Amino acid sequence: MSKTVMIVDDSASIRQVVAIALKGAGYDVVDACDGQDALAKLDGRKIHLVISDVNMPNLDGISFVKQLKANPAYKFTPVIMLTTESTAEKKLKGQEAGAKAWIVKPFQPQQMLSAVAKLVLP
Q1: Residue 53 has what pLDDT?
Q2: How many Cα neighbours within 13 Å face the side chain of 66?
Q3: CA 61 and chain centroid, separation
Q4: DSSP β-bridge partners for residue 7
Q5: Above 90 in pLDDT, residue 22?
Q6: What does residue 48 show for φ and ψ, rounded to 5 degrees?
Q7: Which residues fall within 8 angstroms of residue 48, CB to CB, at 6 or more apart?
Q8: Per DSSP, what are the bridge partners of residue 82?
Q9: Which ranges in the chain belong to alpha helices (H)?
Q10: Distance (Å, rounded) from C-alpha 14 to C-alpha 64?
Q11: 30 SS3 class
Q12: What predicted TM-score, i.e. pTM, was given to this entire model?
């Protein structure tokens, strides 16, 4: 059974690049254009991993991760932040919210896939 990864990014092109890499590696993909959209799509189905941008309209990535982790069904879902942000302060906020990894754009799909493979829920 394939694993499902949610991609949350307000950039359609980033969602597309990430989705192509993930589907090529055998993952199912759910995509969302911001944190609010992502929360609306968390309907109880199993999400094995979330890849989220930080800077998004409506609900930013850090706030989204906090809300995700507050939901008992997704409390243990690993999160990778995929962002242009690289400051230590932002990374710390991401970690405090519950993010497990931080990948800075532009990224290599292979680098992202290896992080996904390490963190994805069994």
Answers
A1: 98
A2: 10
A3: 9
A4: 31, 51
A5: yes
A6: -85, -20
A7: 3, 4, 5, 27, 77, 78, 120, 121
A8: 103
A9: 12-24, 35-41, 61-70, 88-97, 109-119
A10: 18
A11: strand
A12: 0.97
